[in-house]
Amino acid sequence: MKIRLTVLTFLVIVFQFTMTVAQDPNPMDWPNFKQFEELNTKLTKMKKNKNRVVFMGNSITIGWLQTNPNFFKDKNYVNRGISGQTTPQMLVRFRADVVDINADVVVILAGTNDIAGNTGPVTLKMIANNLKSMTEIAQANGIKVILCSVLPAYDYPWSPGKKPNIKIPKLNSMIKDFAKESGAFYLDYFKALNDGNNGIVKEYSNDGVHLTAKGYHVLEPMLEKALDKVLN
Question: In sequence order, which residues have a C-beta less than 8 Å from that of residue 89 and are 6 or more positions away?
Fold first, then answer.
């Protein structure tokens, strides 16, 4: 009787899994290729009349477009941020979302979700290596790279106790050193947003991690100055 119950339970689990897969056409799309697939196809067919700048990142990146859309208006800025993503996910989709859409410059802002543990345990070296790999892929394809410092965060509301206030400055130091070695441009957002305790100034964030419109306004002239330097 116990064996029959065990087999029945197993079959129920298999059925539930099969139904879940059937309902989700892309159950294994871990890097989320589908997110920008259609937009990328359209973009590659468009004539490029000025330098194309691609923003690679997470919710902080896509939130920029959602919060301050005017910053992206009438510019050849392409936002490829996906909420919650970590650097290994970005690395997997980097060719599709950056190289294959003929980017001239890529602005990489990533790493905080890794420290938060969004896709599992990780070391700072692993995060830095993923950023290095994205940089190397870009440079091998003639794309100029702006490596942004990870923004300050004293703690993560959804994943407390990860000590980002200690880890982020260490990671930023690694990013800065690699940028110097590789010829990438290092853009230090951390310093501009730091409240003195390695957290974000309160008026720039509502949750200590994501930026308000005022927070993005701090970054915008910094980025435009960096773009002017790498493109001229």
Answer: 30, 31, 32, 82, 119
List, in sequence order, the alpha helices (H) in 59-212: 59-67, 87-94, 112-116, 124-140, 164-182, 189-193
Per the structure, how many domains does the chain have?
Answer: 2
* CA dist., res. 67 & res. 148, Å (int): 19
Planar angle of CA 139, 103, 40, nearest 5 degrees: 130
Mark whether 50 and 137 lie in a shared domain. Answer: yes
* Structural domain that includes position 19: 1-30
Q: What is the pTM of this model?
A: 0.88
Supply the pLDDT for residue 5.
39
Kind and range of the H or E run holding 9 = helix 2-23
**Residue bearing the bigger pLDDT, 34 or 22:** 34
Distance of CA 227 to the CA centre of its chain: 18
Tokens standing for residue 197: 């305790």
The phi and psi torsions of 133 (rounded to 5 degrees) equal -65, -40
Which tens digit of pLDDT belongs to each residue from 119-155? 999 999 999 999 999 999 999 999 999 999 999 999 9
